[in-house]
Write a structure and sequence with these properties.
The strands form three sheets. Strands 1-4-7-11-10-9-8 form a seven-stranded mixed sheet, sandwiched between helices. A two-stranded antiparallel ribbon has the order 2-3. Strands 5-6 form a two-stranded antiparallel ribbon. It has six helices and eleven strands. The chain is α+β, with helices and mostly antiparallel strands.
Length: 217
């Protein structure tokens, strides 16, 4: 007797999108998806995490390795580490993104008592703006190239941008991403001190966005 299943089409609201749809949009902008560990090096937290959001990282009681001792509060560290690996293999042009959870301490009881675990989308672009070809002059990717990618993700909604101070980002080449007057992420060049520390050569441009805001676009 062949198996029988009662299948029903789930409702899909016109004003919302799924994470998979977001992945397709980012991939169409020439980014490749990566998956990194939620356990990260405490040094990454000190370098890349916003001090206003995570003054006390969540330390693991029994880490599987010394360089995986805290829970990440930003996806930027994993992106930079992947860029470092590609640089060691002489890969000049790198465009990557990740969707994953970040972890914070909180005073309320939702969704887990004492902790908040928001989903975020982060991306990094380094090297040339376009693959090498005869029809375009070679130039390095800049802030405005990635700004256009971020605006495409939120289309048809319009974004605004304001000055931001973020420890991971260049103080004069970064911005807070605003949607309907509410902050939904950050965008900018990596700070020169981290470019030098991680031997990146040229500053990549990174962004980190709240996935919930993207899903309701």
């Amino acid at each position: 007797i062949p198996p029988v299943a009662r299948a029903a089409m789930m409702p899909a609201a016109e004003f919302s999108r799924s994470p998979m749809q977001i992945r397709h949009v980012v991939a169409e902008r020439d980014y490749h998806e990566i998956v990194t560990y939620s356990f990260v090096d405490a040094v990454w937290e000190a370098d890349f995490s916003s001090t206003t959001n995570n003054t006390q990282p969540i330390v693991l009681a029994n880490p599987i390795a010394n360089n995986m001792s805290v829970m990440r509060s930003t996806l930027i560290g994993g992106l930079v580490d992947t860029l470092v690996t590609n640089r060691k293999r002489q890969t000049e042009r790198v465009r990557i993104f990740e969707i994953g959870r970040c972890f914070f301490r909180t005073a309320d009881n939702t969704p887990v008592a004492g902790f908040d675990q928001p989903l975020r989308l982060a991306g990094l672009a380094a090297g040339f703006a376009a693959p090498e070809q005869w029809g375009l002059l070679s130039r390095r990717v800049d802030f405005y190239d990635v700004k256009a990618d971020v605006e495409a993700l939120f289309s048809p909604n319009e974004l605004s941008f304001e000055v931001v101070v973020h420890p991971a980002l260049h103080p004069g080449r970064s911005a807070r991403v605003m949607l309907n007057g509410q902050p939904v992420g950050v965008l900018g060049e990596l700070h020169p001190r981290w470019v030098e520390k991680y031997s990146l050569g040229h500053a990549p441009v990174v962004f980190e966005l709240e996935l919930a805001a993207l899903l309701m676009t």
